[in-house]
C-alpha cells in the first residue's frame, strides 16, 4: 500500500493557524480531504498520515475527528503543550485515541533554540515511547545537533525527521546540514521524511536542485528509513502535489522496486502504525 506520510487539512474559520495569512495566497483557503482525493487517486495512494499544522490541542481534536470519519486517513500526528504543568496527563489522554500515532511540537517556531534540551521533556518523551507514539521533529538545520542529543537520550522513542530538517536548498549552503544528517542517521531510532523540500528550494526549482540532498539522506539513512510525504497543501506554494510526486519518483528511480515500495508506504506503515498495534490494510 502506498501511504502519503505527511499532509494537512485546515479550515481558516477555526482561527487555529496564525502563520497562515493572505500573503500565502495559494494556500490561504480551506482545504479538506475532498480536495486531496484526486491527487491520491492519481498517485495510487491508499492511505495517509494527517499532521498537525497549528500549536493548539483543539486543532488536534479536529484532525482526529476528521480521521475518524475518513478511511483514507490511517493515523494522525498531533500536538500538545509540552510546557504545560499537566503535559503528561495530556499525552495520556490523547493517546487514548486509536488514530493518534505521534506528536509534533513545532520546534521551528519556538524562540528558545535549546528548548529540545529542556529537562522537563524527559518524562514526556518517555511517556510517548510507552504509548507507542512517534516524535515528529519539525526542526531547522540549527536544531539538528540538539535533536541528536535528545535522540541519544531516548533510544526507546521513535523519531521522524520532518522535511530532512529543512536544508537550505535555495542557497545551496548545506555542508553543515550534511554532517548533522550523517550523525543523526547513526542513531537507529531516527528515520527521515522525504517531504517539504520544494518549499525550501529556489522558486524556479528543478529536480536537479534536490538531488544532492536526497542522495545524501538516502546514503545515510538507507531506503528502509525514509518515508515519502506530500506536505500538501503547503506544497502548492512550490508546484503542487503532482509535480512533487513526479519529482520524488525521478529522484528515486534508481532504487529497486522493494526500496521504492518501502519509501512510498511500507516504512510509514511500520513506523507510524505497527507500533500502535495497527496495520495499513
Taking the sheet with the most strands, its summary is: 8 strands, parallel
Number of strands: 8
What general form does the structure show? globular
Number of helices: 9
State the end-to-end CA separation: 8 Å
Uncertain runs are none
Share in helix? 25-40%
Helices and strands, in order, run as EHEHEHEHEHEHEHEHH
Largest sheet: spatial strand order: 1-2-3-4-5-6-7-8
CATH homologous superfamily placement: Metal-dependent hydrolases
Strand content: 5-15%
Chain-averaged pLDDT: 97
Q: Within the CATH hierarchy, at the fold level, what is the topology? A: TIM Barrel
CATH architecture: Alpha-Beta Barrel
The figure for the number of domains is 1
Q: Which CATH class is shown? A: Alpha Beta
Radius of gyration: 17 Å
Can you offer a commentary on this structure?
It is a single chain. By secondary structure, the chain is of the alpha/beta class. The chain has one domain: TIM Barrel (Alpha-Beta Barrel), CATH 3.20.20. Helix content is 38%, strand content 12%. Strands 1-2-3-4-5-6-7-8 form an 8-stranded parallel β-sheet, sandwiched between helices. α5 packs parallel to α6 and α6 runs parallel beside α7.
Amino acid at each position: 500500500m502506498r501511504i502519503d506520510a505527511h499532509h494537512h487539512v485546515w479550515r481558516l474559520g477555526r482561527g487555529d493557524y496564525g502563520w497562515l495569512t493572505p500573503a500565502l495566497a495559494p494556500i490561504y483557503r480551506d482545504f479538506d480531504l475532498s480536495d486531496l482525493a484526486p491527487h491520491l487517486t492519481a498517485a495510487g495512494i491508499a492511505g495517509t498520515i494527517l499532521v498537525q499544522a497549528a500549536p493548539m490541542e483543539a486543532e488536534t481534536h479536529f484532525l482526529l475527528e476528521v480521521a475518524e470519519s475518513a478511511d483514507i486517513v490511517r493515523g494522525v500526528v498531533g500536538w500538545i503543550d509540552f510546557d504545560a504543568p499537566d503535559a503528561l496527563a495530556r499525552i495520556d489522554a490523547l493517546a487514548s485515541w486509536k488514530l493518534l500515532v505521534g506528536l509534533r511540537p513545532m520546534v521551528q517556531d519556538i524562540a528558545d533554540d535549546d528548548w529540545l534540551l529542556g529537562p522537563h521533556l524527559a518524562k514526556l518523551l518517555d511517556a510517548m515511547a510507552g504509548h507507542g507514539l512517534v516524535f515528529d521533529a519539525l526542526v531547522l538545520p540549527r536544531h539538528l545537533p540538539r535533536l541528536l542529543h535528545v535522540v541519544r537520550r531516548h533510544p526507546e522513542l521513535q523519531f521522524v525527521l520532518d522535511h530532512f530538517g529543512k536544508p537550505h536548498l535555495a542557497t545551496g549552503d548545506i555542508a553543515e546540514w550534511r554532517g548533522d544528517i550523517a550523525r543523526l542517521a547513526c542513531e537507529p531510532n531516527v528515520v527521515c521524511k522525504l517531504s517539504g523540500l520544494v518549499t525550501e528550494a529556489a522558486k524556479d526549482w528543478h529536480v536537479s536542485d534536490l538531488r544532492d540532498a536526497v542522495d545524501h539522506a538516502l546514503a545515510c539513512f538507507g531506503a528502509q528509513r525514509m518515508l515519502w510525504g506530500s506536505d500538501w497543501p503547503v506544497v502548492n506554494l512550490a508546484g503542487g502535489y503532482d509535480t512533487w510526486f513526479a519529482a520524488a519518483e525521478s529522484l528515486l528511480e534508481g532504487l529497486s522496486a522493494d526500496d521504492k515500495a518501502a519509501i512510498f508506504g511500507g516504512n510509514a506503515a511500520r513506523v507510524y502504525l505497527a507500533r500502535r498495534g495497527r496495520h495499513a490494510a
